[in-house]
Amino acid sequence: MSEVRFQLLSRTNCHLCTEMESLLEEILPVFGESYSVEDVDSRREWQEQYGEVVPVLLRDGRAVAKIRVDRGQLERIVRKNRAGWRE
Questions:
Q1: CA 24: distance to chain centroid?
Q2: Could you tell me which of 6, 45, 73, 75 has the fewest CB atoms within 10 Å of its CB?
Q3: Contact between 67 and 18 (Cβ < 8 Å)
Q4: Count of CB atoms within 10 A of residue 22's CB?
Q5: Taking CA 68 as the corner, what is the angle to CA 14 and CA 29, rounded to the nearest 5 degrees?
Q6: Per-residue confidence of the chain (87 residues) as pLDDT tens digits?
């Protein structure tokens, strides 16, 4: 596994967060990637920046997906990450 480069900003009792986490668990290991889950309310800057817009998927600290992501979108995000792509 590579170093953890993906973070899922989540919130308790958020069904969309649960959905995105399930997709991450399914897709990321296929690419040798992992992620951590962080409470969006644990840091003031995340609260101010994202508010109620959760879940948010961060790659190297930058938002790459918000609210919903499908399998194809997530796979493209991971492939771009592996290629060293930067926005």
A1: 8
A2: 45
A3: no
A4: 10
A5: 90
A6: 456 689 999 999 999 999 999 999 999 999 999 999 999 999 999 999 998 999 999 999 999 999 999 999 999 999 886 665 444
| Burial of 13 (C-beta count, 10 Å sphere; 0-12/13-18/19+) | exposed
CATH superfamily label, 6-81: Glutaredoxin (3.40.30.10)
β-bridge mates for residue 65, sequence order: 57
The phi and psi torsions of 10 (rounded to 5 degrees) equal: -130, 175
d(CA 75, CA 80): 9
Give the integer Cα–Cα distance in Å for 1 and 14: 28
